[in-house]
Write a structure and sequence with these properties.
437 residues, alpha+beta, Outer membrane efflux proteins (OEP), 10 helices, 8 strands, 63% helix, 10% strand
């Protein structure tokens, strides 16, 4: 997505823009690039390409489409002719005893479909295939959105690991300074014990951050079927903020929402089902012709037959009513889904604005002040004007602000990805993203 500097060739591309490029190049998706070295970095483009090529859930649609092609081929087949053989007037009594008066008839009959049923079946099969393709496209975007979410979480945990390393380094520097003051009898022994406890806890937090990051990498790699990740880092600028369109513009783009597009395909299927049900109202004609052998006179004659159902009671009215109701149901469900999507978009948009504002304020105003406050507190502690607790409190406040900054940036990235998923297109401006750091 546009929040990431995935690679120089990807630049400011967004989730859906990258997905479209990968989907338009099947030869690239068939052999996605893989990190070659154990210490390599993973771009978002490579993660998306690998997922499209190897995700087991997406690969199952290949077989679903093949099955639908089989159904379409069967729908195109015309009814088979029927060969019939009958024997009459045999094994009776009197004049029809034995086979002396038997009549043998060999006939060939063919069902003639009326009402353009074959074309309606083909139209239904084509609409069903389009619905499967729409479902596949929707599921692809769902999977790609999951890749982006896990990619963002991995990027955020990389920042958290860096923060944990800094916290451990701060604890180490504090412990060194406190022990020096304790040895010089300028601080009580209790301060040394507190500093050692703080350092031990910081080391544990760093180890926990490393384990969480390893788990994130493993979960990300699992999306394209790798049991072990072949990368150690993802390339991401978590704090970049590309330009965002007004909400009114985004609401107009909801017609491209994949979930709503599926209703268009579903409506086509229901229309085809309705037309086929109407076509089945017309009765089919059965025509037959053959030859009859009359044993009594060793004579032969031609026979012809024609039959057609009389639609007095069954005119397929029940199936037509059901198809009409199913078609109207699609419209109602589409309206309800459109309302849900717009409501969700509004909520996500407001949360994105809040997350961006929080990330910007933390980066530009609050964090620099906390950094300066820590420097001043450390300077005053070294000269005996501030206590150990005041120095540690300043460190904790700084680390807390940095943690909130990471969380806000990660939330903004996830929310932007969700909005892109809802609108069905990238939101990032073509210009370079405005970084907040």
């Amino acid at each position: 997505m546009s929040l990431f500097r995935a690679a120089a060739r990807v630049g400011g591309a967004s989730l859906l823009l990258i997905a479209a490029a990968v989907l338009a190049a099947p030869e690239a998706a068939a052999a996605p690039p893989e990190p070659a070295a154990a210490d390599s970095e993973l771009s978002l483009h490579d993660a998306l390409a690998a997922t499209l090529a190897r995700n087991p859930e997406l690969r199952s649609f290949v077989y679903e489409l093949k099955a639908q092609d089989g159904r379409a081929a069967q729908a195109a087949v015309r009814p088979n002719p029927e060969l019939a053989f009958t024997a009459e007037n045999f094994a009776g009594t009197g004049a029809v005893r034995g086979f002396t008066a038997t009549e043998f008839t060999l006939s060939l009959s063919q069902l003639i479909e009326l009402g353009d049923k074959r074309r309606r079946r083909l139209a239904l099969a084509g609409a069903e295939r389009s619905a499967i393709e729409a479902e596949r496209a929707t599921r692809q975007l769902d999977v790609l959105a999951d890749v982006v979410r896990r990619y963002i979480e991995t990027a955020a945990d990389q920042e958290r690991q860096t923060l944990a390393q800094r916290a451990r380094q701060l604890a180490q520097d504090t412990l060194t300074a406190v022990e020096a003051r304790v040895k010089a009898a300028r601080a009580p022994l209790a301060e040394g014990s507190r500093a050692r406890i703080t350092f031990a806890r910081a080391a544990l937090d760093e180890a926990q951050a490393e384990r969480r990051l390893r788990a994130d990498r493993s979960q990300l790699a699992a999306l394209w079927g790798d049991e072990e990740p072949r990368f150690t880092r993802v390339t991401a600028d978590l704090y970049a903020q590309p330009a965002l369109a007004p909400f009114a513009d985004l609401a107009e783009r909801l017609s491209r929402n994949p979930d709503l597009v599926r209703f268009v395909s579903a409506a086509r299927v229901r229309d085809a089902e309705l037309q086929l049900a109407i076509a089945k109202r017309a009765p089919d004609v059965q025509l037959g012709a053959g030859v009859r052998r009359l044993q009594a006179g060793n004579d032969a004659a031609l026979v012809f037959s024609a039959s057609i159902p009389l639609p007095f009671r069954d005119r397929n009215q029940g199936a037509i009513a059901e198809a009409q109701a199913r078609r109207e149901q699609v419209e109602v469900e589409q309206s309800a889904a459109a309302l849900r999507v717009r409501t969700a978009l509004f909520g996500l948009y407001q949360e994105l604005l809040q997350a961006r504002a929080e990330s910007t304020d933390l980066s530009r105003e609050i964090l620099p002040q906390a950094e300066e406050a820590l420097k001043q507190t450390e300077y005053a502690y070294q000269r005996g004007r501030y206590s150990y607790l005041e120095w540690v409190d300043a460190q904790r406040e700084l680390l807390s602000i940095q943690q909130k900054r990471i969380d806000a940036a990660a939330d903004a990235a996830r929310l932007l990805a969700e909005i892109e998923r809802l609108t069905g297109e990238p939101l990032a401006a073509r210009a370079e993203p405005e970084a907040s750091r």
